[in-house]
Recover the amino acids of this structure.
């Protein structure tokens, strides 16, 4: 019974040595081909046409306005522009509170100058404007 594992080990080593010897000879002679197949793949065959589809481009919506660059730099890191601009039109004071909450509670890395620019942008593009002017 003890000779069976030894026999299997010898057979395995012999098979490996034979493969290595043939591989070494072929590599030395420059005959080793590393490609898997010389036949074209079914997708490349002329009788199987290649189909393509065109997906619609979903451009991030951030309308132009004062503070646009600060908004994109500060807010789009965590939020999609569509998420932000789809919010209800809030007053400047509500937007100011939301931006402050993002800084205080969630750790938004923006300066107070950038925060003021973001509030300007949000109030200009999605602010609640009473009849006759902007809500201040």
């Amino acid at each position: 019974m003890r000779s069976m594992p030894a026999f299997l080990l010898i057979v395995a080593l012999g098979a490996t040595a034979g493969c290595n010897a043939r591989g070494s000879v072929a590599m030395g002679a420059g005959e080793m081909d590393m490609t898997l197949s010389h036949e074209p793949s079914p997708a490349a065959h002329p009788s199987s046409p290649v189909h393509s589809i065109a997906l619609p481009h979903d451009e991030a919506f951030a309308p132009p306005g004062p503070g646009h660059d600060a908004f994109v730099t500060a807010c789009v890191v965590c939020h999609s522009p569509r998420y932000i601009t789809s919010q209800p039109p809030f007053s400047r004071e509500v937007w100011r509170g939301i931006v402050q909450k993002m800084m205080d509670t969630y750790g938004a890395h923006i300066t107070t100058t950038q925060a003021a620019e973001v509030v300007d942008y949000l109030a200009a593009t999605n602010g609640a404007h009473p009849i006759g002017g902007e809500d201040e």
